[in-house]
Amino acid sequence: MTPAKTAAATAVLLLATACSAGGAAPPPADTLIWATTSAPNSLDIAHGFNSASTLVQAAVLDSMVGLDERGKPVPRLAAGWTQPDPASYLFTLREDVRFTDGSPLTADDAAFSLRRHLDPAVASQAASYFTMVKKVEAVGAGQVKVTLRRPAPAFLSVSAIAWQVVPRKLAEAHPKDLGSPEVGTLGTGPYKVSRFSLTSGVVLERNEAYWGPRPALRRIEVKSIADPETLRLAVRSGEVDGTSDLNARDARKWTGLPGVKTIFYPGDNISYLSLAVGNGPLADVHVRRAIAYAVNRRAISDLMTAGHGAPAAALLPAPMLTALYGSAPPPLPDYPYDPAKARAELARSAHPGGFTLAVPYAGGGDTGTVMQAVAADLAKIGITLRLEPAPADQYQSRMMEHDRLGIQFVSLAYGTPEPIEVLPDMISRASAQPQGFNFSGYGSAETDEKLDALVSATGEDAKAQVTALLKEIAEQVPYIPLFHTDNAVALSERFTASLGTWTTDMFARIRPAGR
């Protein structure tokens, strides 16, 4: 343990000692103190589409559609919907729903909240979710009509994740900084924001005028604790009541904590290497295949999941693969760990003697661990990665700007069983622009056409099209799937929770024990 970590751990332990000796009083039973390893950067999904930010957004901002425990769309702000034709939806809003400032929710607010993701000036990080949308309009006092470019069965599911409703007047006034600490946001959800700071965290208070079931928690405090061991000690001491940012590989450290229960459930996530196909040697498909053979994915999976996950065979989260294929996924081109085959592929490339590549990365944490393992594997075949660590927030910002992309370790979490939620992130040309998640830059007019066709596909046709795209990705290797992990939550025994793969609002599923 470094001196800095030792000092931080000592501070937590001293706090625990003070509390046990009759110092600070414990928080009220209906107050939850939650910790994340990174701070929310925005309460607007358009500019804060990351786990720390969406955790808070889901408690404050309602979506038009929700997902049930099976991942099926259900009404939320929309009381219901009809399909006048296969390519359009007519949503009817609930009556008497108000934003937390008292202003009424209107169909115009709901329509604008979706339409803004289509506006290039907004540069929404959720834009790829709605490429199938042609037109959104308020019709009448309480209805919204969405017209799609073609039928899109996944539209309702992705709407549950990204169609968060905000007041039009506020969003129009702040196209770039809605959700920032300076501007904030307004929602109709179970909680309202009483404080938001990039340094001191977020405080949520129960929305007593919420249209839905009354939240069990009155107050939620969200703070950031970047160091994993300091976070664990904070939960152990009772300074923090819970976190969903524990590392699966550290599960043994968490499962025996007194007064703390650890909950694991299947996660809709995928961790992978992204290879920027326009970056020097990485433009050569034989180099990319050599890297795929050289990386010991099983060893990395074992290291990073400690039995609470598995190696990934395709570039989709495990729950999506199960929802689509059941227990029999199709065979795809694979690259089992084989340094000899890696050297043979490199010999076929324009760089048979290997090369050196500068690789910026987020120092520490999962990214640092994986990139050091990858660098060690590639060194065995003559590829030298010159690792350049940077602070996590600085690196994340640079990566989202698509600055100096090369080989990146990426972990993305999704929210629906629909492959169309993932694939545009990976191979659409729109997502290859700054603020998009296509860090490989792989994509063409042809792949965009395939994605457009997939949007409308159903049943066996959809399955065949997804299989073809996964095969293309596996053959061309813009990405190397590494592993899936279970979602993990550490929670004080003062609370109970009912969580599943398709849970969108975690705080709504937590309540004081015995209630």
From TrEMBL:
One of its GO terms (cellular component) is periplasmic space. Keywords: Signal, Transport. Transmembrane segments: none annotated. The keyword Nuclease does not apply. PROSITE patterns: PROKAR_LIPOPROTEIN (PS51257). InterPro entries: Peptide/Ni-bd, SBP_5, SBP_5_dom. The keyword Transport applies. Pfam families: SBP_bac_5. GO terms for molecular function: peptide transmembrane transporter activity. Residues 1-24 form the signal peptide. Residues 72-420 form the Solute-binding protein family domain. One of its GO terms (biological process) is peptide transport. Belongs to the bacterial solute-binding protein 5 family. This is Peptide/nickel transport system substrate-binding protein.
